[in-house]
Model the fold of this input.
Amino acid sequence: MEERVTAAYNLMLEGGSRRSNAAALSSRFNVSIRQADNYITQAQALLKEDFRGEREEMLNQVNAMRMTAIRKAMKRGNLQVCAHLLDSVARSFGEGSIEQDAANAGLGLHITVDDRRKASPEE
Done:
């Protein structure tokens, strides 16, 4: 059974869809699609556990790559790319998240403009 879960794990790392991975496992180990799907579920739990501790380090690496890309885009004048990447960096630090939006819910800038054209001559 461990061999089958490992095979499911490896298929997931290759990026196939759940359905295609289940079909491949079913064919390879001569089991039902339902049983193959159970192996995939077990493999997903392993994958989640494997990446739980590495999330912070991966986030740091991804942000370092984003910053490098931002610098290169700035040199080339690709401001739209810079804006997109900066937004991505901000989201990785929680800006724009539901929690952050809730914390900022009371904050805001409200501007009103009086229309002087409709003012009375006495004013």
Helices lie at 2-14, 18-29, 33-52, 55-76, 79-92, 98-103. The radius of gyration is 26 Å. Residues 2-52 form one domain.
